[in-house]
Amino acid sequence: MKTVTGLFDNYDDASDAVGELEASGVPHDDISIVSSNADNQHDDDGSKAADDAAGGAGLGAAIGGAGGLLAGLGLMAIPGVGPVVAAGWLAATAVGAVGGAVVGGAAGGIVGALTDSGIPENDAHVYAEGVRRGGTLVTARVDDQLVPAAERILGQAKSVNLQERRGEYQADGWTGFDPDAENYRSNEIGRDGARDVNRV
């Protein structure tokens, strides 16, 4: 099995990628999504994210964490990242990595969960920072025969070019994901969407 990951500035693009992964044969239990909710977009649209999960994404996975068990796509706050909507194995692993306690290390749990699944640490830092800044992360564990299709889906024209984004962050003085950093305010979220993405 290999872990394949894509970062999206737009939740709808990420949701479409989840649907494509499922259509390609990746089981629901092997897909995870973590989306920033700092701007309350998932509250304001009548839980559109939850509807997507139930109707198409099918990411029903139990997530253990502080405050009990959340089933499927649920809202949680991760220090350093801020409020997110998340479901699937990555979210469960990230929350479980801190023993269910929401503390400063919880955000580091995303980096740890990604690196434990085979993502290089320097890439995991960019992915976590991308979510912190308003993005949506889609991660899939795929069998070897599905790797090419999953890489094509998550590396599509609407996903973020990770190397370019890393360079843009570093040009602004960023040195790595800091789980102890203050959350972005809602008016600061989404600036990455105005950056260049890997679009055709």
UniProtKB/TrEMBL annotation:
Domain General stress protein 17M-like: 6-72
Domain of life per record: Bacteria
Name this polypeptide is given: General stress protein 17M-like domain-containing protein
Biased composition annotated in UniProt, kind: Basic and acidic residues: 40-51, 182-200
Listed Pfam families: YflT (PF11181)
Region Disordered, residue ranges: 29-51, 180-200
